[in-house]
Design brief:
single chain, about 325 residues, alpha/beta, 7-stranded mixed sheet, 5-stranded parallel sheet, 14 helices, about 45% helix, elongated
Length: about 325
């Protein structure tokens, strides 16, 4: 007994004398949190949202390097890239994974049916099979959705009010990465909302940048067209290519998140993604403290933002009405 006590005291003294040893021990005891992001690592706006998530975690008492260790993986806006990133993250053996985007959530769920997953920026978790219902997720996945069924009509009405002369509206999306790729319930909603505004609805599926270029160019040949961009990991990752295309053809576009308009898009209305990442920290905290995803209901968005880029409007020869500008949360001049 005395020998055991002496060994314990010696080990404790060594830790106290060696700050690096203390740090290593703390790192070993820290809870492991994985973060899987559908988009590209070069995306500054995603890094900002990631910082907000970590800041929210600190408010719950989770200090990076002390009692929590983060491992971040990026999918690059490609389904194969997300799958490889999910496999690498599963090897990290996290206690819980925050997934950002539909492809990331799908890949992580397929990679491991046991690791708890909290998603943010997912539009159709029921249709994509991630959860059984909002109130009773039912498995190892829960989180925060971006989508309200009424938002398709809102996008079109804001676009029509901003550019009254349009007569056609195309829904731009990548079937491999877009929400609703399984349920496809967005199509009848979009078509009905478009016709209520006397707009001809057009579906514009694209699988890569080259196809997007040819499809948009073909659509732009008929005048008075407009485009609604889906909340799609591929389009988010390739938004610079979208901006270049629509600027060339002077096609007015409605985007699903404020970051699109901040980076050069015409107008954006949608869920505040920073707020979703901030709120997701509460569920990650609860799971680290023993809660099960199945007991945490999926939460709908509560904060939306309207962003208008007047520089882009001027470049396209458009005059955005004052009725839109006074409602905007941000106007970029």
């Amino acid at each position: 007994m005395a020998a055991t006590r002496r060994m314990f005291l010696a080990a404790t003294a060594a830790l106290l004398a060696d700050p690096l040893a203390r740090a290593r021990q703390g790192a070993d005891q820290a809870r492991r949190v994985g973060i899987l992001i559908s988009g590209r690592e070069s995306d500054k706006s995603t890094h900002q949202r990631l910082s907000e998530f970590k800041h929210a975690m600190r408010r719950f008492g989770w200090i990076e390097g002390r009692n929590v260790r983060y491992e971040v993986r990026w999918g690059g806006g490609r389904r194969d890239g997300v799958a490889a990133a999910a496999k690498a993250l599963a090897a990290f053996a996290p206690a819980v994974v925050l997934t950002v985007g539909t492809p990331a959530t799908d890949a992580m769920r397929r990679q491991s049916p046991n690791i708890p997953i909290v998603f943010a920026v997912v539009a159709d978790p029921v249709g994509d099979g991630f959860v059984a219902s909002f109130s009773h997720p039912g498995a190892n996945v829960t989180g925060f959705t971006t989508f309200d069924a009424e938002i398709l009509g809102k996008w079109l009405s804001l676009l029509k009010e901003s550019v009254p002369q349009i007569t056609r509206a195309a829904l731009l999306f990548n079937p491999r990465t877009a929400p609703f790729s399984r349920s496809e319930f967005q199509r009848p909603l979009f078509e009905r909302a478009a016709r209520q505004l006397a707009l001809e609805p057009v579906m514009l599926p694209v699988h890569d940048v080259a196809e997007m270029k040819s499809s948009v160019e073909s659509f732009a040949r008929t005048p008075r067209g407009s485009i609604v961009v889906m909340p799609d990991a591929f389009l988010l990752a390739n938004r610079a290519a979208v901006f270049e295309l629509v600027a060339k053809h002077r096609v007015p576009v409605m985007y699903p998140f404020g970051v699109f308009a901040s980076d050069g898009g015409l107008i954006a209305y949608g869920t505040d993604m920073t707020d979703l990442n901030r709120r997701a920290a509460a569920y990650v905290d609860r799971i680290l403290k023993g809660a099960l995803p199945a007991d945490l209901p999926v939460q709908a968005p509560t904060k939306f933002e309207l962003v208008v880029n007047l520089k882009t409007a001027k470049a396209q020869g458009l005059a955005i009405p004052q009725s839109i500008l006074i409602r905007a949360d941000q106007v970029i001049e």
